[in-house]
Automatic annotation (TrEMBL):
Residues 1-54 are annotated as: Disordered. It holds the Pfam family CMS1. This is Uncharacterized protein. InterPro entries: Cms1. GO terms for cellular component: 90S preribosome; nucleus. PANTHER family: PROTEIN CMSS1. Residues 1-12, 21-36 have a biased composition (Acidic residues).
Length: 261
């Protein structure tokens, strides 16, 4: 019987070994070590890239939030009202739509100040007040028994505004927790100033005092120190208590208006 090599008859010798086509079951076929390392490295690079993207998104959002807070005072009243409505809904999730409607502001509660052309900082506070309230602080001022109330988020900021507005007629009355209550009551009664620089907390205490002559009706306008952000980038509007107090004042004095600086 002829062999396979003989049948080919091509002058070459062929040898068939069956073991050449068998796989040793004891040997595990695996990827080269270099590919494993490359695979791990790729996963690490992907994870690092995702973290960097997330970090960048947070940074962009933070910058947007800061810019939004700084420029909030320049918005139209309807935009201000809608923004505050969001905060009210977030803080009162259990209330019905009808109950929430009683807490919302009206666009008529706010006076647009976005057309004020100058920078809104501490040195410019007096100029803003003179421009916005010429009959109280400007050359055309008239005698009045009412106050323009500036609300700030901290006692330190109140002190800063008090110093920045010393050039106004009668300067301003600084109303903070550090003062003795009886001294503040006496100061309001005797002082000729028509500008109050106060924290929300101190204002609440004074309005609760029966001996104090300050009432919601004796306030002609509210100026919110809206453009100021503290070291943690917190604005006046970030404290919900401030929103509640302003809404309460507006309910008690229907002619009262809010201005944002």
């Amino acid at each position: 019987m002829s062999t396979l090599a003989d049948d080919l008859d091509d002058g070459l010798e062929y040898a068939y070994n069956p073991s050449d086509n068998e796989v040793d079951e004891g040997v595990v076929v695996s990827e080269p070590e270099e590919e494993k390392i490359d695979g791990k490295g790729k996963r690490k690079r992907d994870q690092g890239s995702s973290k960097e993207k997330l970090k960048e998104k947070k940074k962009i959002k933070m910058q947007y939030d800061i810019e939004h807070k700084l420029n909030f005072s320049k918005e139209q009243p309807d935009v201000i009202v809608e923004e505050l409505a969001k905060k009210i809904r977030q803080h009162n999730k259990d209330l019905s739509s009808l109950e929430l409607s009683e807490l919302y502001f009206s666009k008529d509660d706010f006076v647009y100040t976005g057309d004020y052309p100058h920078k809104r900082n501490l040195p410019g506070f007096s100029k803003f007040l003179k421009t916005t309230f010429p009959r109280v602080f400007g050359k055309s001022r008239r005698n009045t028994s009412k106050y323009v109330l500036v609300l700030s988020q901290s006692a330190i900021r109140c002190c800063d505004i008090h110093r920045a507005t010393r050039d106004l007629p009668g300067s301003s009355l600084k109303l903070i927790k550090k003062n003795k209550m009886k001294n503040d009551i006496e100061l309001i009664k005797r002082a000729k100033s028509h500008l109050l620089s106060s924290t929300t907390g101190r204002l609440i205490r004074l309005l609760e005092e029966e001996e104090c002559t300050l009432t919601p009706d004796s306030i002609s306008a509210i100026v919110v120190d809206s453009s100021y952000l503290d070291s943690k980038k917190i604005s006046y509007w970030d404290d919900y208590k401030n929103i509640e107090v302003i809404k309460d004042l507006l309910k008690k004095n229907k002619s009262l208006k809010v201005y944002l600086y």
